[in-house]
Write a structure and sequence with these properties.
The protein is mostly beta strands. The strands form 3 sheets. It has a 5-stranded mixed β-barrel with strand order 2-3-4-8-7. The protein has a 5-stranded mixed β-barrel with strand order 9-10-11-14-13. The chain is globular and about 45 Å long. The chain is 13% helix and 52% strand. It has 2 domains: 83 residues, Copper binding periplasmic protein CusF (OB fold (Dihydrolipoamide Acetyltransferase, E2P), Beta Barrel); 75 residues, Copper binding periplasmic protein CusF (OB fold (Dihydrolipoamide Acetyltransferase, E2P)).
Length: 190
């Protein structure tokens, strides 16, 4: 009987130790905005975030931080420490500890012109397109591509993995590609 109790206690201690030693993963989110300033000395990037806020992001200095993100999203992005394009319109990939935001990487969206539309989803064709009706009653349809990034409740995902239903409220940032509106970024809104 004593052996069984001792074995159970040893197992419980080992299990507790393993759980405590497991590092937490930081969920990576995305947003769009214009890089306002880059401070190499302070290791910060200030972004004029779409929607009107000015937000300061710390550079991710610990490369061993465990991230919960599809690595393909970051494949054509530049690490926050290496990004030097002040004034660029970007996707910022970041995580937050509740108080401060840490930039993981930034992806320049190019020269534009860009469109932004907020509204209610009227049609969602999975990996192909999303249609929304805005507050003026106009319907806009955006194609989804392999470069589309989406932000849902659980972090940033490839646009092909984004799920939307009729009636959802979203904001879409797009650009024209071969004359067709392409969604670069989609985020759910309230």
């Amino acid at each position: 009987m004593f052996r069984r109790v001792a074995s159970c206690m040893a197992f419980a201690v080992c299990l507790g130790w393993c759980c405590c030693a497991a590092p937490a993963q930081e969920v990576v989110h995305a947003l769009t905005g214009t890089v306002s300033s880059i401070d190499d000395k302070a290791k910060t990037i200030t972004v004029f975030v779409d929607g009107g806020d000015l937000s300061v992001f710390k550079d991710m200095t610990n490369t061993k931080t465990s991230l919960s993100v599809d690595k393909k999203l970051l494949s054509d992005a530049t690490t926050a420490d290496d990004f030097k394009k002040q004034g660029a319109y970007v996707l910022v990939f970041y995580f937050s500890d509740g108080h401060a935001r840490t930039a993981v990487a930034l992806r320049s969206l190019g020269p534009g012109p860009f469109t932004a539309a907020a509204g209610t989803v009227t049609d969602f064709k999975g990996r192909r397109s999303i249609s929304i009706i805005d507050k003026t009653g106009a319907t806009q349809t955006f194609d989804l591509s392999s470069n589309t990034v989406a932000e849902g409740g659980y972090g940033a995902v490839n646009g092909a993995k984004f799920q939307a239903e009729k009636g959802d409220h979203v904001r879409v940032v797009g650009a024209a590609q071969n004359g067709e509106p392409i969604a670069l970024f989609v985020t759910q809104t309230m």
